[in-house]
Amino acid sequence: EVDETGPRMIEAFRAMSADNKLLLKDFSFRSADIQFNRTLSLNLGGVHVDIMAAGPAHTDGDIAVLVREDGVLFTGDVVQQNYAPVLMGAQSSLASWLSQIEKLQALPAEAIVPSHSAVTDRKAFDDMREMLVFVRDRWAGIKAQKLTAKAAQDRLIADFKARFPDCDNADL
């Protein structure tokens, strides 16, 4: 996925601000030292960590990391709090994202560590699911109205902001 979308994403982030442009000036991806297919379990001196595929959701290559002994789950972009879902992968869909939430929710974790929001608890699963279901259902209703693409986009964003006023990135 990095080979396919990485350069485009770096250019997009560079274009977001002068600071980003400076910080990412000489940035380039490097090949992963370790690759895995669905799950990789590591024993880090008695601390057991499971790294697992958690996509497609936000991207095709989402991952999550469970620190078993501590009951801590790093969810990346798959489970956030007050952060609108953004589909970035070629295989990403609301249905696949909802499926990934179900998979992660079944894990034995009490502390949830998202990538763009504060450390939280298991309620984050329900909150993220609620956002995804809202987008799915509201989009179906908007499509039935046969609006122009721009009008449909504006309607969905306005409705999303009204439903989730605390969401940090609802304009995306």
Task: Characterize the structure shown.
40% of the residues lie in helices and 15% in strands. The chain is built from 5 helices and 5 strands; from the N terminus they run ααββββαβαα. The protein has helices at 2-14, 18-23, 94-105, 123-144, 149-163; strands at 39-43, 48-53, 63-67, 72-76, 111-114. The chain has a 5-stranded mixed beta sheet with strand order 1-2-3-4-5, with no helix packed on it. α4 (123-144) packs antiparallel against α5. The two termini are 22 Å apart.
Poorly predicted regions are: none
Give the number of helices: 5
Q: Bin the helical content.
A: 25-40%
Helix and strand content put the structural class at: alpha+beta
Largest beta sheet: strand ordering: 1-2-3-4-5
List the topology elements.
Layout: H1 2-14, H2 18-23, E1 39-43, E2 48-53, E3 63-67, E4 72-76, H3 94-105, E5 111-114, H4 123-144, H5 149-163
Helix pairs in contact: 3-4, 4-5
Key features of this structure:
5 strands, alpha+beta, five-stranded mixed β-sheet, single chain, 172 residues, 40% helix
Kindly summarize this structure in a few lines.
With 172 residues, the protein is α+β, with helices and mostly antiparallel strands. The chain has helices spanning 2-14, 18-23, 94-105, 123-144, 149-163; strands spanning 39-43, 48-53, 63-67, 72-76, 111-114. Helix 3 (94-105) links the parallel strand 4 (72-76) and strand 5.
